[in-house]
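Q: what sequence does this backbone want?
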């Protein structure tokens, strides 16, 4: 299955909800899971907003979407003078490179499986985002994707990358375990961990079972995995730790649980405290200060 969408839009903030709604409608028709659609909607908004902020007056920009089976690639291309990639990444020295750009980059990097920036002076800039899709059971997209993967010569684009040296059955088993963490099936997951599944099992992005549970608001699963020996401070490939992930997704019950279990809100880049500060979660910042005060006393 392959779907292509190519839109040329005016440099106007009103274009953002339009392209967002159009893409979401296509994804909903295919049967992409709601949580994945929500991630795509948010990261697309940030990418388009970034281009609109940096493009020159009167410029237009292009949104190009390619969906191949379970893989979605979004390219947002402006036709202006380009921009400073370091500044967009939040590393610039100017005032505009701090809060707004840093927040947008944090969102895109947290939600996308891969993010790439390219700037071409006097010619424009490119933001490329990649996201792995999951389809609801019996959905149109799921059926079309299965038909493609069964076709001779298929390259399996978008399928979950296998663990090093793993066979197909082991890969499927690991995928089920990760889904259990996302869905909060803590009793079943604990049974597998007790039977020998590593408590710190991680996927191709470095997300552990604990990270996935924290990110999806599964407090009981977080506690169960911690009791089974899961590392509270193990970062994923982006350097994000479970507590920072829970703050980013605004999951207060998970945040409180991880703090009680001993997670460090000041560890990692960005740390949970950095993330809370970036998004104005003052209540969570207060919890972190209380935790630090308790450690000192």
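A:
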């Amino acid at each position: 299955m392959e779907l292509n969408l190519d839109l040329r839009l005016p440099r106007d903030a009103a274009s953002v909800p339009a392209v967002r709604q159009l893409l979401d409608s296509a994804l909903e028709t295919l049967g992409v899971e709601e949580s994945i659609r929500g991630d795509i909607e948010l990261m697309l908004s940030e990418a388009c907003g970034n281009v609109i902020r940096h493009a020159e007056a009167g410029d237009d920009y292009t949104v190009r979407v390619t969906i191949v089976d379970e893989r979605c690639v979004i390219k947002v291309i402006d036709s202006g003078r380009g921009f400073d990639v370091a500044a967009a990444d939040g590393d610039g020295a100017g005032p505009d490179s701090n809060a707004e750009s840093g927040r947008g980059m944090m969102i895109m990097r947290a939600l996308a499986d891969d993010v790439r920036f390219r700037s071409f002076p006097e010619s424009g800039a490119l933001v490329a985002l990649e996201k792995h899709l999951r389809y609801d059971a019996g959905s149109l997209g799921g059926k079309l994707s299965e038909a493609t993967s069964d076709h001779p010569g298929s390259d399996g684009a978008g399928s979950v990358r296998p663990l090093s040296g793993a066979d197909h059955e082991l890969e499927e088993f690991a995928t089920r375990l990760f889904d259990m963490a996302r869905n909060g099936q803590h009793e079943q997951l604990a049974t597998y961990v007790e039977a020998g599944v590593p408590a710190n099992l991680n996927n191709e992005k470095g997300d552990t079972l604990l990270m996935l549970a924290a990110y999806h608001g599964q407090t009981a699963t977080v506690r169960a995995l911690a009791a089974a020996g899961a590392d509270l401070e193990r970062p994923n490939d982006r350097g994000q730790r479970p507590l920072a992930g829970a703050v980013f997704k605004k999951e207060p019950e998970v945040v409180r649980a991880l703090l009680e279990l001993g997670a460090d809100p000041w560890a990692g880049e960005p740390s949970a405290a950095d993330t809370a500060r970036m998004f104005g979660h003052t209540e969570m910042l207060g919890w972190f200060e209380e935790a630090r005060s308790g450690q000192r006393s």
